[in-house]
Amino acid sequence: MTFKPDPNEGALAQDGYTNEKPTLHLPLSDDDLETASGVNEKALLRKLDLTLLPALTLLYLLSFLDRSNVANARLEGLIEDLHMTGNQYLTCLTIYFIGYVLFEVPCNIILKRTSPRMWLPTLTIAWGIVATLMGVTQSFPGFLVARFFLGVTESGLFPGVVFYLSMWYKRNEQHYRVALFFSAASLAGAFGGVLAWGIAHMKGVGGLNGWRWIFILEGILTVIVAFTAYFFIFNYPATAGFLSEDERNFIYKRLKSDSDATRNEVFTWGNVSRALKDPKVWLYGLGFHTMSLPLYTLSLFLPTIIKELGYTAAQAQLLTVPPYAVAFVLTITVAVYSERTRFRAPFIMGSASVAAIGYVILLANSGRPGLSYFGTILAAAGIYPATALVLAWPANNVSGQTKRATANAMQISIGNLGAVLGTQLYRTESAPRFFVGHGLALGYLLGNVCVVGTLWLVLKRENGRRERGERDGRLEGVTEEEWLGDDDPRWIFQL
After folding, report:
1. How many angstroms separate the CA atoms of 28 and 30, rounded?
2. What's the N-to-C CA distance of the chain in angstroms?
3. Pairwise CA distance, residues 129 & 6, whole Å
4. HSE (CB half, 13 Å, CA atoms) of 21?
5. For residue 368, how many other CB atoms are within 10 A of its CB?
6. Are 234 and 52 in contact (CB under 8 A)?
7. In 10 A of CB 60, how many CB atoms?
8. Cβ contact 265:481 at 8 Å
9. How far is it, in rounded angstroms, from Cα 195 to Cα 199?
């Protein structure tokens, strides 16, 4: 179905545009739209949330589970059975992110040129198969290859979903949905510890050690869910079968004044180049880079960190649950308050500061495992909310569909270079205090505060210039139907 704009549209929508540009015929406000269409906006948003988010969140939960369960498998004999050294194990962690970084941007370009219903479930099947095969590898080289291709096949999910949500929701609504989606990462950490503890009891079944069953069962679960995903992943509002025609038109009109989601943009390499040349896109990437190292070092090494505090392997598996449970609650809570206040930067900086306090405790404390364990809770409680908001920020602020898809992928690629470094920090010889790993995580968190603060000032300054009309020259010779993306002076950045 093709949407057509209403030629009689008049009043100005609230988000995304300034009020100083009377040359455009802009859509009705949401309240007027709701009255004119007879569609209840709140009920429609609930319908979208209940239809779209559970499926996407489940896929990301499985994705994070399949990438991080190696930390649980390590406690159940992975290194010993494959005759790996501690450094070889770290190499297996690193190679995953190399595959992830290399294929992130190509995967989002493929998504733009195909469709979410085809691409996202196909990726999930691919990584589910690879995850299952990790449970039957017999050597270090085999496991290394499997980890590389796990990174390749998982690389398209997160940036793809962030772009996908930007085609359904208004800018101020997106970050909360991205935060809900990302909260699956902390849920995966919580469930992963419990699942690993339970599955480890299958040691000896079929002649296999417990760590093998962790990979096999969780990988098979991913494949099963992925096949069903072809039926519960929808493309875009114009073709979604669960919407009525009135609801489709309502979504179209509410997005028309708020973002570029309703524009029929043709893919061009020039728009990819625009993302590459935009300094703000690189700052978004650096914002995630400074969160990625603490995020992945925590998720990949938390069981080991806790075990080195003096707990048994089984106790360590279960003790990973509370930090992730706290992180899950705070990720959603912080996202709610960020949405209400319409600010991103202060909440990111505040959350990163909480995590930094956790690492200060881990570095300073000795001989009191309970206090160090509390430090891990603070670390998780700050890292996950901050990361969720950082990842949603470019989806809010980058306009131009191809540019935004590229920017989302660039952010994850640049960010995951931090994860590549982080995988080499927690070496066996540095246990139990892990001064290098904890110290660099602390440094990165403080760096995040600086990067996000800088980006906040850059965006605020640019908004001021647009509000004062200093960018109006860009509109010379531009027709009412033309759109300059986020270079358009009518586009206001969210801070």
Report:
1. 6
2. 35
3. 48
4. 28
5. 11
6. yes
7. 21
8. no
9. 6
Residue 367 region by backbone torsions, left for phi larger than 0, else alpha for psi between -120 and 50, else beta: left
| Per-position DSSP letters for 39-50, written without gaps between them | --HHHHHHHHHH
Q: Which two tokens stand for residue 390?
A: 């950082």
Q: The tokens 């493309």 sit on which residue?
A: 235
DSSP at 473: G
CA distance 79 to 159: 32
- Quote the tokens at residue 385: 């909310």
257: tokens are 């004044």
How far apart, in Å, are the Cα atoms of 29 and each of 6, 176, 257, 393? Answer: 13, 21, 9, 24
**CB atoms near residue 369 (< 10 Å):** 15
C-alpha closest to that of 145 among 110, 99, 180: 99
CB 257 within 8 A of CB 13: yes
Q: What is the pLDDT of residues 221-265, one digit of tens each?
A: 999 999 999 998 999 898 888 999 999 988 888 888 676 666 767
Tell me the backbone φ, ψ of residue 155, rounded to 5 degrees.
Answer: -65, -25
Instruction: Please provide the DSSP assignment of 397-423 as one string.
Output: H--SHHHHHHHHHHHHHHHHHHHHHHT
Q: Phi, psi at residue 398, to the nearest 5°?
A: -90, 125
- Cβ atoms within 10 A of the Cβ of 264, count? 8
Tokens of 224: 């099963």
Quote the pTM value: 0.82
Q: Under a CB-based contact definition with an 8 Å cutoff, are residues 316 and 200 in contact?
A: no
In this structure, what token pair is assigned to residue 354? 């909480």
Helix (H, G, I), strand (E, B) or coil at 72: helix
What whole-number distance in Å separates Cα of residue 260 and Cα of residue 187? Answer: 32
C-beta separation of 233 from 117 below 8 A: yes
Which pair of structure tokens corresponds to residue 52?
Answer: 């779209």
Encoded tokens for 289: 């880079």
Whether residue 195 contacts residue 283, with contact meaning beta carbons closer than 8 Å, is answered with: no
pLDDT tens figures, 58-111: 999 999 899 989 988 998 999 999 999 989 999 999 999 999 888 988 888 888
pLDDT at 158: 86
Using alpha carbons only, what angle is made at residue 434 by residues 430 and 435, rounded to the nearest 5 degrees? Answer: 105
Contact status, residue 211 vs residue 78, Cβ threshold 8 Å:
yes
Residues 6+ positions from 242 with CB-CB distance below 8 Å = 47, 51, 234
| Structural contact between residues 273 and 41, judged by C-beta atoms closer than 8 angstroms | no
